[in-house]
Design brief:
The protein is an alpha+beta fold. Helix content is 45%, strand content 23%. It is elongated and about 105 Å long.
Length: 391
């Protein structure tokens, strides 16, 4: 990673830091290949065949108008308004520098022969300012094209990521299971899984990759792939998580770790065997309204390759509810800095315990939004609910 010059650095250090990666070929590419790519990106899908037969001097303003319309429509309404305001203010500034028309001597033929042309006169420095304004606009256009292109790729990645997660409500015997996630960015690091086994048992899992965005999403995909592969080996819960931890430790950066709750539920008996690798303690709402917290039985995955994990056992009885959630829900803060906390989650669950898991999950996310007073969060929100119908 390139070093940043400090405030006490010498001027030569600053010059070296800003020019050492500069190359003439890259600068030339900026005005040729990159500019052409940006034009093609913004005008993609728009027909320019009507301009092809026109002379270049007629094509130029028409293509410029087409490009500006396509570019500004890609901006959000607020940014579009700000951009038009900037153009308007710049135009007013240029008009203020206008000094009228006058005859201007222009060399013609030889240095000894000049022709006087009746041209507009501007204050000194006007054309320099206009050139700087045009270059800044070119930079903005190139950056917006890069960001929108990346955003399009991330949208595709989001669709793939969400397709990896279970959809809809899983129903078996007297249980209903539903999960949902809302990434803070286009893609996120939270995940959940519902995996029915051939013996009738069901695996429920929820985890959180440290960090957000693309790096977390890649690790999330890695973990899901390894997890589903290990499930096929019919390992006990603790042994499976230990194998999973070893793979994550070997194939992820040292600065990354993953918290995970892994449970195996038996719909016939209600038995739940689980391993909690540093994940927020899931809650079981008992029939009398009390809550049982399923505390950690090991550290987060990826911290130490040889970590040991231990399985615990509990029972989910008829009429009871298992709530798995990520820390994005309990740590969501309102403008005063107060988090939603586990108590806020419990209050929502208590008030809407009669709803289906799908309805309750939507209610919880709505309550978190209302608490935070904003539609966008700094962390991913994920919840997975297992509800056993009353006898």
């Amino acid at each position: 990673m390139a070093s940043t010059p400090t405030a006490s650095g010498k001027p030569a250090d600053w010059i070296h830091a800003y020019t050492r990666d500069f190359s003439g070929d890259e600068f030339k590419r900026l005005f040729t290949h990159d500019t052409r790519d940006a034009y093609d990106f913004f005008t993609r899908g728009q027909s320019g065949e009507a301009y092809a037969k026109l002379p270049w001097w007629k094509q130029l303003p028409l293509r410029f108008r087409q490009f500006m319309a396509a570019f500004t429509l890609r901006l959000s309404p607020a940014r579009r308004a700000l951009y038009y305001c900037a153009l308007f203010v710049a135009a007013i500034g240029v008009l203020n520098l206008y000094r009228g028309f006058d005859f201007v001597p222009v060399p013609f033929g030889t240095p000894f022969f000049q022709v006087g042309l009746f041209l507009p006169i501007w204050a000194p420095g006007t054309f320099t300012l206009m050139l700087g304004f045009l270059l800044v606009n070119l930079l903005v256009i190139l950056e917006v094209a890069d960001r929108l292109s990346l955003k399009g790729e991330l949208e595709v990645a989001r669709e793939i990521q969400l397709a990896m997660l279970p959809r809809g409500t899983y129903v078996a015997s007297d249980i209903e299971i539903f999960g949902t996630t809302r990434p803070a960015n286009t893609v996120g690091g939270d995940f959940y899984d519902v995996l029915p086994l051939s013996d009738g048992k069901v695996i429920v899992a929820l985890g959180d990759v440290a960090g957000k965005g693309s790096p977390a999403a890649l690790l999330m995909a890695l973990l899901l792939a390894v997890l589903r592969t290990l499930v096929d080996e019919r390992l006990e819960a603790a042994a499976l998580v230990e194998r999973l931890n070893a793979q994550i430790a070997r194939h992820s950066p040292a600065s990354r770790f993953i918290t995970l709750f892994f449970g195996v539920y038996d719909p016939v008996t209600g038995d739940l065997t689980y391993v909690n690798a540093g994940q927020n303690p899931p809650l079981i709402r008992r029939g009398d309204g009390r809550y049982e917290r399923l505390a950690a039985t090991g550290v987060a995955l990826g911290m130490f390759e040889g970590s040991k994990f231990y399985a615990q056992r509990t029972i989910v009885l008829p009429g009871e509810l298992l709530v798995l959630y990520s820390d994005g829900i309990t740590e969501a803060e309102n403008p005063a800095g107060q988090p939603f906390e586990e108590t806020g989650l419990q209050q929502v669950v208590d008030a809407y315990a009669s709803e289906t898991p799908a309805q309750l999950a939507a209610t919880v996310l709505t309550a978190v939004e209302r608490h935070a007073e904003r539609p966008k969060f700094i962390d991913d929100l994920t919840i997975l609910l297992l509800k056993r119908r009353a006898a």
